[in-house]
Write a structure and sequence with these properties.
With about 325 residues, the protein is α+β, with helices and mostly antiparallel strands. The protein has helices spanning about 20-25, 30-35, 50-55, 70-80, 95-100, 115, 140-145, 155-165, 230-240, and strands at about 10-15, 40, 60-65, 85-90, 120-130, 130-135, 135-140, 175-180, 180-185, 190-195, 215-220, 255-260, 260-265, 270-275, 275-280, 285-300, 320. The strands form three sheets. Strands 5, 6, 8, 9, 13, 16 and 17 form a seven-stranded antiparallel sheet that branches. Strand 14 and strand 15 form a beta hairpin. The longest helix has 14 residues, at about 70-80. The chain is globular, with a radius of gyration of 20 Å. The chain starts with 9 loop residues before the first strand and ends with a strand.
Amino acid sequence: MAGAGVRTRVVVVANPRSGGGKTARFGLIDRAESMGAQVWSTSAEHDATSLASLAVQEGAEVLGVAGGDGTVSAVAAVAAAADRPLLVVPAGTRNHFARDLGLDIRNPVSSLSALIDGIPTRVDLGSIGPHVFINNVSFGLYADALLEPGYREDKARTLASVAPDYLAGRQCVEADVDTPWGTVRLPQVVLVSNNPYHIATPRNLGRRFTLTSGLLGGIVLKRPTDPPPDLLRHLRGELLRRPPDPGTPGDAAITWTAASITLHGSGRQLHAGLDGESVTLPLPVTCETRPGGLQLLLPKDRPGIPREPVPGLPRVLREH
């Protein structure tokens, strides 16, 4: 498929609340409909998953999604299960997945050009049982913050209210995680990403230069016996001053890549943040990668593709 074309049925699932109302502000609905796509907006009665599933049932050949990472992740799960191409329109606040695809997050409408002459591409997906994730799954501080009332309205304040017990070493992830250097018991934070994050230089900290490595990225913040006063600052300094070597774990953190990462423990379940949405997962939790598990339809012009190479990693995308 070299583009959706005028005869292909395209349904774009749009979240009108994402990004402070970007779909309306950028005229995304009118533009998509003028190009022959149908736009179905989420509501209190119909979430992104149900709309995307209905679109597939009614014969959509391409699924589009306009919203933030949570909305994109929900529609991506349906697209992957149905083996449909996904067109991503970055209409959220952070747009991490769209950013790492190289899409122009300042001009969301530009992504709709893929409906005319899009490039078919496959990227990896992360999975935990029936769940998939496009960005990451987190355990610990962030996962707990998602459970707090008012998180969506004031994320910074909610994180600040949850952080003290973690920073003081009194709170931890109620599970152990297996790493190449052995099992870390009751860590403070575990972050598993769909392809590894770049952490070697400040300029592109937290970016992914590839989404086709066939590997997960693992970051574990260990629970020290004598935690420093500002553990997050200590971790940031640890990573930036001495980027972790695959064979040399740091004092505060361990980073590595693997096809699967497992958390286990004596409990029955574990709270997690799955692409920014709160979920409860049964233990043990095994995160795995699905190489090439998601079809995408991308615009030819992707100005946001990072230019700084990462040694040993392939190009950001694999085009077919």
